[in-house]
Structures are given as C-alpha cells and as structure tokens.
C-alpha cells in the first residue's frame, strides 16, 4: 500500500460540456513543493484533470495510507463533492485521519462546513503553505492546534477559530519553492496550457469582485509579486521538461501597480535575452496598458490579453470602484489594436440599478469598441457573497436565495430595480436565442469563408443591424411614461417581427 503524509485532492469533477477547460491548479503545486521541502511525502489527486468520479477517488483513498487529507473548496459544488467523498469513505479508514479544507470558498463558509460534516476536522483560511505544515507537525507531535494561525478546528463539541494568518510578503513568497508540476503532463495531453504565477492577489478595489473581497478580508498587502528571476526559472523548467510553447499567466493582474512597470520591462527583456520562444497570455487592468511596455511584451511573446473593461459608462465605473474611466478604456483598446495584440474583454451589459439611458450608453460603447460576442448582450453583473456590492444592494433590490451556476459559481440572482430594464432584458434574451440561429450571419460566414476582409465588412454590417434594432427598442421603451402590459406585448411582437424580417433581408457590401 502506498504511504504518504498528506494527500491533496481537488474535488471538482468535469461537467462533460464545452465549459470544461483543463488547467493546472497551481495552489496544490505550491503547497506540495513547500511541504516536500520540509521532508513530507505529498500526493496530489486532481479529479478534474484526471477526469475522476467520486467512486474513483474513494477507491484510491481506501487503498492508500496517509495521515492528513486536504481538499480545496472554490465554490459550493466543491464542498458538496467533498462531503460526498467523505461520506463514502469507510469509518475504519478515517478513524485516525485528519481532514482539512482550504481554498477561497472557506472564507465564506468557515465553521459552517465543520457543522455540516462531522468528519471534517479543520478549515484553513488564507494561504495554506505555513498553516498546513504547522497542522501536520501538531498532528504528528499530538499537540493541540491553538497556536496555528489561520485555522478553524473542531475541539470536541466546540469549534475554535484561531487568529488569522497574514498574507505572505514578497520576501516570504521569494523563499517559497516554485510549484511542483505533478499534473502538467496530463494538462498538456488534454489540450490545456501550462500556467505560471508571477504574483498573488489583486491591488484593485472593485466592489463586485469576490477576489477583492477575499484578499481584503486578510491582513497584509493584497497584491504581491515574485522576482523576475524566479518566474523566468519556472518558465525555463516548463520549457526543458515539457517543451511548452504557450503559457497562461494565472495572475489576477499581471502588470501590478504603476511602480512595478520596470519589473515587467525586466521580465520582457529577460525572456527576449534567453530566447525561450514561447507565447503567453495575461490578465490586465486597462490602466496598466502602456504602448511602450506592451510593445516590449509583444516582442517577448505576448499573444493575448484579457482586459477588465467591465462597463462603458463612467457612472457605472465610478459606482463599482473600478478606478478607471471610459476614455482610459478606449485608450487601452486602441493601444492593443495598434500593436496588433489579440485581446478579449470582461464586459457587463446589465447591472441591478441600471436605467435605460445608461444601458444605451453601455450598449453603444460595447458595439463600437469591443469584439462582439452575442452572449454579452445579456451579460449581468453577478452578486457574490461577502462583496461590497452585496451589502450595497441588499436593501435596494429584490435578491433571491443563493444559487450555483456552472459559469458564475455561487451568486445571488436578483430582480432589476427598473421595471423597464426587467422587461427589456427579457426581450433581448429572446432575441439572442433567435440571433444564435441567424440566417443572415450563417450566410455571411459561408459566403466570405475565404476572404477575411469581406467577412469583417459583412459582419460589421450585421453587428450594426443588431445594435440599431436593440437600441431602437430601448429608446421606444424609455419614451413610454407608463409601460402597460398591452404595450409590452405590442413592443415585443413588433421587435421580434422586425428582427426576423431584418435577418431574412439581403446582405449588402461595397464590392469596390
């Protein structure tokens, strides 16, 4: 029988549809390397990457000897799977094993999970490297857990919450070893990308963001970086051992605060100097986009940027504390376009308090500045637990019981404050369903298959048609002093009839 000190389990299972995206869970890689550096034997089992079911993991655990079983929990579906797995393990197997749960979601559930399943012994809040090591030390020495910061644990019938553990400083992160790559080969075999982490946390202050809420709840700097040499060394290791061609930087914000720009320049220069021949993608705030900096990053291999635009309205950007303006968003987009760097955007079309005027402003910005995606027309702000947005809205709008969604995770569904928006949203939802089967768009794709310029021209015409139809509907609704049920029925029928007629109309373009 295999013997380990610690087994780390990612309990998320694949969903079996197009949202499955196989990536490394770097959190376990860092935990494993840290603990192995202390002389402990650690095994990682990632149910998602290995495509395992509950019975598969139970069989593995039953046939392995270990002292501590650690799970990660990133949402309620993780905790449901954790309880499922634990309940299927034999009592004899679990009698002398300590079970702990860490991950972002533990900050929300805290002692609730301990009350839900009495086989779970402890919860780790915050970064887990030091907490997990101190926990296994206390278990082996049969000492109590009262001195372990960042731990909530069961002591008989009592649940005890220790002092919080501050986030590690840059200096402490530098002392931690690079992540072990137990699952990288499997990720690559599943057409996934290797991930690298150049920093932890985010320095932003967005009120709707669960990441910001998580890091704000912990003591210490919210955003911390690793040195250029350490990040480059990680990339070189991946290149040497896995011959990687593409890297997905998992940083919440890759560039960092303005004072960190030189660090990014040094990183780009070092990549160019070592001629590692890789492409990579990053996440960035629009205020971090600088022409000279991103020109340098492109030379180093930058291929794609995920840009946190969020809104095309200054009032919304200010309300949600994005720390950016519409003009800055437009400037960032223009820089990336000028440099011919691919980018995708985070964009929210609807939010709980939006009115028709602001919606039209938001729609106009999206249609004229962002790469068009049909599903963005009905994108809604997700209200996450423990965020400032939740406390802002709790007395403003009708919020329903928390739900889990395959894309959004744990969030609170809600009703828009403006009844006209509630109606408009429902009509646009139906329009998106109809447009997903657009005859005109299907014709454009087929007709211009071999001509990219022709496709762009025809698609722009198609997109403008969608914009004018939706904006026209919004304008009519806004002009109504009272939107009666009769008018709602009339406007919806009129709009859908116009949409169908437009979709069947000929495609025009300038042949010259």
What's a concise summary of this model?
The protein is α/β, with parallel strands linked by helices.
Order of strands across the main sheet: 3-2-5-6-7-8-9
Extended strand count: 20
Number of helices: 22
Radius of gyration: 25 Å
Describe this structure in words.
By secondary structure, the chain is an alpha/beta fold. Strands 3-2-5-6-7-8-9 form a 7-stranded mixed beta sheet, sandwiched between helices. Strand 8 and strand 9 form a beta hairpin. Helix 13 (261-274) packs parallel to helix 14 and helix 17 runs antiparallel to helix 21 (452-479). The mean pLDDT is 93.
Using brief descriptors, characterize the structure shown.
46% helix, five-stranded parallel β-sheet, 512 residues, 22 helices, single chain, seven-stranded mixed β-sheet, alpha/beta
Secondary structure blueprint with pairings:
Blueprint: E1 2-3, E2 6-10, H1 26-37, E3 42-46, H2 47-50, H3 54-62, E4 64-65, E5 68-72, H4 76-88, H5 91-94, E6 98-102, H6 106-109, H7 111-116, E7 122-124, H8 129-141, E8 151-155, E9 158-161, H9 170-175, H10 184-189, E10 194-196, E11 199-200, H11 210-216, E12 224-225, H12 228-242, E13 246-249, H13 261-274, E14 279-284, H14 291-300, E15 302-310, H15 314-319, H16 326-338, E16 342-347, H17 356-369, H18 388-393, E17 398-399, E18 403-405, E19 409-411, E20 414-415, H19 419-435, H20 439-447, H21 452-479, H22 485-504
Parallel strand pairs: 1-4, 2-3, 2-5, 5-6, 6-7, 10-13, 13-14, 14-15, 15-16
Antiparallel strand pairs: 7-8, 8-9, 11-12, 17-20, 18-19
Helix pairs in contact: 1-8, 3-4, 12-13, 13-14, 17-21, 19-22, 20-21, 21-22
């Amino acid at each position: 029988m295999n013997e380990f000190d610690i087994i780390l389990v990612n309990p998320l299972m694949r969903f079996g549809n197009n949202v499955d995206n196989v990536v490394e869970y770097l959190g376990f890689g860092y935990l494993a390397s840290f603990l192995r550096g202390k002389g402990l034997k650690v095994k990682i089992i990632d149910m998602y990457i290995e495509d395992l079911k509950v019975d598969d993991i139970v069989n593995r655990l039953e046939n392995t000897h270990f002292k501590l079983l650690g799970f990660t929990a990133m949402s309620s579906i993780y905790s449901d799977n954790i309880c499922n797995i634990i309940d299927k393990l034999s009592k004899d197997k679990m009698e002398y094993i300590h079970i702990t749960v860490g991950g972002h979601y533990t900050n929300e559930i805290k002692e609730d999970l301990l009350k839900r399943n009495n086989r779970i012994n402890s919860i780790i809040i915050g970064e887990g490297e030091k907490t997990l090591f101190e926990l296994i030390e206390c278990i082996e020495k049969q000492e109590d857990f009262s001195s372990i910061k960042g731990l909530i644990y069961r002591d008989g019938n009592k649940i005890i919450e220790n002092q919080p553990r501050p986030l590690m400083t840059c200096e402490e992160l530098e002392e931690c070893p690079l992540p072990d790559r137990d699952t990288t080969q499997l990720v690559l075999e599943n057409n996934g990308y290797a991930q690298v982490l150049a920093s932890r946390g985010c320095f932003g202050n967005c009120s709707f963001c669960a990441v910001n809420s998580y890091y704000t709840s912990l003591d210490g700097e919210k955003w911390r970086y690793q040195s250029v040499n350490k990040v480059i060394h990680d990339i070189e290791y991946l290149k040497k051992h896995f011959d990687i061609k593409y890297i997905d930087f998992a940083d919440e914000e890759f560039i960092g605060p303005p004072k960190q720009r030189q660090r990014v320049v040094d990183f780009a220069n070092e990549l160019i100097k070592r001629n590692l021949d890789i492409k990579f993608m990053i996440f960035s705030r629009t205020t971090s986009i600088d022409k000279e900096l991103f020109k340098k990053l492109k030379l180093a291999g930058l291929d794609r940027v995920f840009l946190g635009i969020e809104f095309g309205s200054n009032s919304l950007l200010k309300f949600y504390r994005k720390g950016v303006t519409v003009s800055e968003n437009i400037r960032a987009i223009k820089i990336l376009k000028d440099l011919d760097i691919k980018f995708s955007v985070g964009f929210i079309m609807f939010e709980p308090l939006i009115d028709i005027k602001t919606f039209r402003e938001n729609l106009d910005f999206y249609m004229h500045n962002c790469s068009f995606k049909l599903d963005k027309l009905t994108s809604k702000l997700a209200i996450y637990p423990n965020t400032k947005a939740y406390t802002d809205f709790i007395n403003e709008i009708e919020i329903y019981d928390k739900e889990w969604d395959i894309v959004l995770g744990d969030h609170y569904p809600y009703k828009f404050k403006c009844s006209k928006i509630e109606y408009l949203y429902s009509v646009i939802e139906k329009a998106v369903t109809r447009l997903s089967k657009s005859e005109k768009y299907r014709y454009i794709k087929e007709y211009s298959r071999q001509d990219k310029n022709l496709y762009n021209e025809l698609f722009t015409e198609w997109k403008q048609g969608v914009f004018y139809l939706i904006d026209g509907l919004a304008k009519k609704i806004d002009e109504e002093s009272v939107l009666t049920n009769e008018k709602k029925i009339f406007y919806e029928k009129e709009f859908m009839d116009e949409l169908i007629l437009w979709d069947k109309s000929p495609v025009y373009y300038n042949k010259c």
